[in-house]
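User: Hey, my collaborator sent me this sequence without any context and asked if I could get a structure. I don't really work with proteins. Can you help?
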Amino acid sequence: MRRYRWIILALLFAGTTINYMDRIVLSVLLPVIKEDISITPLAYGYITSAFQFTYTIGLLLFGLVIDRFGAKLGYMMSIVLWSITGAMHGLCGSGWCLAGFRGAFGLAASGNFPAAIKSVAEWFNIDDRSFATSLFNAGASISSIIGPPLIAIAAISFGWRWAFVLFGSTGAALAIFWHLFYKTPPQQ
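Assistant: No problem. I've predicted the 3D structure and written it out in structure-token form, which is a compact way to encode the shape of the chain:
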């Protein structure tokens, strides 16, 4: 069991990395998107506000969902929903459409931290929780380092719309691995 918890932590690191990678696709590709669908500064303000507003509400909602249904189901719901809504950005033809999907994405992506913290609490004793939390949280920084060049390569190779689909679909693989490998410690 002590070794298995590192598999759980690796999944949480991957989840946080993918979550933040999906968050930065819009900001990296904004100059290209602006040329294609002409987003005004006001529209971009609505887009970012939609994410922040729904993310704040989502933290509260997903905290309740994860406490009630557990980290396995709650996190899997979050991953699937953020992946779908992240990929759907590629369908947009206006700033209003982006604001709508960005809001839905913010709501769904907010499940990452409540699930990760609950999982760490289940799998790590009190003396190791800060270290475990810092490891999964490092995924946010890693995505900021490796994300922009990967996103640029995807956009150059396939177009900005497909970059959203590509990065959104990485969550599908994570959801499968999470479902297969996550168990609460008494079940393991």
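In plain terms: Residues 99 and 182 are 33 Å apart (CA to CA). You can pass these tokens on to your collaborator as they are.
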